[in-house]
Structure formats: C-alpha cells, structure tokens
Design a protein that fits this description.
Elements lengths: L1 H30 L3 H50 L5 H29 L7 H43 L1
Amino acid sequence: MKHAKILIVAATFIFVAAMVSMLFVGETKAQGPTNAEDRADRKATRLERIKVRGQNIVERTTIRVDRVLQLNTKAGEIAGKMEQKGKDVSEARAFFETSSEKIASARAALNEATTILTQLETAENPLTVIQNFKAKIIEAYAALNAAKQNTLKGIKALKGASGASASAN
C-alpha cells in the first residue's frame, strides 16, 4: 500500500511535469518571434536609443552655445559702456566679433547635426549617418571652444583697457 501511493504520486508528478513542459515548449514555438523579427526589434530599439542620445547631445551643446552667447553679449555691452567713457576697446571688440562668428558656425553645425539625426531611422546604412552626426558635433564643439576662447580674450582685453586708462589718469 505504501509503495502504491508513492508510485501514484511519482506517476502524477511525471505526468504534470510532462504537461507543463509541453505547454511551455508549444507556446514558445508557436507564439515566439522568429530570429529575424527579434533582430529587427533589437535594431529598432538600438536606433531609438542612439537617436535619443544624439538629441541629448544636441540639447546640451545648444545650452553651452547659449551660455557663451550670453557671456559674449554681456561683455559687448560692457565694452560699449567703456567706449562711451572714452576708452579704447577696439581689440576687445575684434575678439567679440570673432566670437560671434564662431557661435554662428557652431549653431549652423548643430542644425546640420539635428538634420542628420532625423535621417537615422530611414537610412540604409545607419553607421555612416552616425559618423556624419559625430563629425558635425565635433565641428560644433570646436567652434564653440574657439568662441569661448575669443570671448575670454576679449574680456582680458577689456580689463587691460580699463586698467591702462585708470593708470593714465
């Protein structure tokens, strides 16, 4: 009697295990995506993540461009006030104008990078699109750094102009 109960429990366990395995194996094969579909989904997900990262890079770079532009504008206003007081700020003005040109080129590169990023989903070869995007972002950063350096040189020239006229008086 004792052995019969054990055999019945073992047979029931084996039957349930077989049914569960058939259930899961049958569902996986019948409803699971094929490798090609799964690959396409992963590719779409990767491209979406890359696009979001690119948009974040463009946003952060735009913020940096705006900050340098704000600094350049404020320094230009100070130069105008100093010029009204009769101080020579021509050197500083030249730096600020160069900085404004560099800021404009950085903005243009960012606009091109944004345009390139929108082409990512429909591109036949996304890798070349990503490389073009990277090149434009590097170009924007280079122009932005040059603009920042020129703004800082202009500010130093303003300090020199204010110090030179103060010592002349």
